Amino acid sequence: MKLLSAPASPFARKVRIVLAEKRIDCDIEKVDVQSADNRVNAHNPLGKIPTLVLDDGTALYDSRVIVEFLDHASPIARLIPEDNRERVAVRCWEALADGVLDAGLLVRYESLRPENERSAAWVDRQAARVRRGLAQMQKDLGARAWCVGERYTLADIALGCCVGWIGFRKPAGIDWRAEYKVLAMHYDKLMGRPAFAESVPAA
């Protein structure tokens, strides 16, 4: 298998962590999706990462699809519970974390436009979504040891990738560690796992 990826992508980071937790061997190919000659296009018509190319040439895209495939590809360290309610809860955590990232990425992309073309109102709307999502995750996590149930799951990975990226890029100047201390403590605990610590994007 080959993962088309970029070190700073939070969605690709999620897949890399799952690969490490599941102990699945996979070649990781760094790509630049902003390039006019985007190599991802040959495998994913959307030209987005992460894209996983299987040994038979089949391409999987969207991190949520990829991690579900990987979780079933190896019995080691199941990250998505079999119980229906717990499984849905894990996927809801993932959807919320990914949604926060989507809004944060829109803020970042807006900041890269020429200053006279930027919309402060647009940035404010997306930043508000980020803050609401982080607040909801903090409320839902509360004093629990893990996001869902009594063990580490894909929900914790999704949360960690989300807040890790927010801290890395700081969209709209959001200081998530100062504002969401419960999430900060949870992230620090996750960083004790080698798969997390080794996947931190370079500055």
Description:
This protein is α+β, with helices and mostly antiparallel strands. The protein folds into two domains: 2-73, 3-Layer(aba) Sandwich (Glutaredoxin); 84-193, Glutathione S-transferase Yfyf (Class Pi), Chain A, domain 2, CATH 1.20.1050. The protein has helices at 10-22, 63-73, 84-111, 120-141, 154-169, 176-179, 181-190, 194-197, and strands at residues 2-5, 27-30, 51-53, 59-61. The protein has a four-stranded mixed beta sheet, covered by helices on one side. Helix 3 (84-111) runs antiparallel to helix 4 (120-141). The longest helix is centred in the middle third of the chain and has 28 residues, at 84-111. The model has no long low-confidence stretch (mean pLDDT 96).
User: Number of helical segments?
Assistant: 8
What is the tally of beta strands? 4
Largest sheet: 4 strands, mixed
Named CATH architecture of the largest domain: Up-down Bundle
Strand order of the largest sheet: 2-1-3-4
CATH class of the largest domain: Mainly Alpha
Which radius of gyration do the C-alpha atoms yield? 17 Å
Into which percent range does the helicity of residues fall? Answer: 40-55%
What sequence of helices (H) and strands (E) makes up the elements?
A: EHEEEHHHHHHH
CA-CA gap between termini: 27 Å
CATH fold topology of the largest domain: Glutathione S-transferase Yfyf (Class Pi), Chain A, domain 2
Strand content: 5-15%
Overall pLDDT score = 96
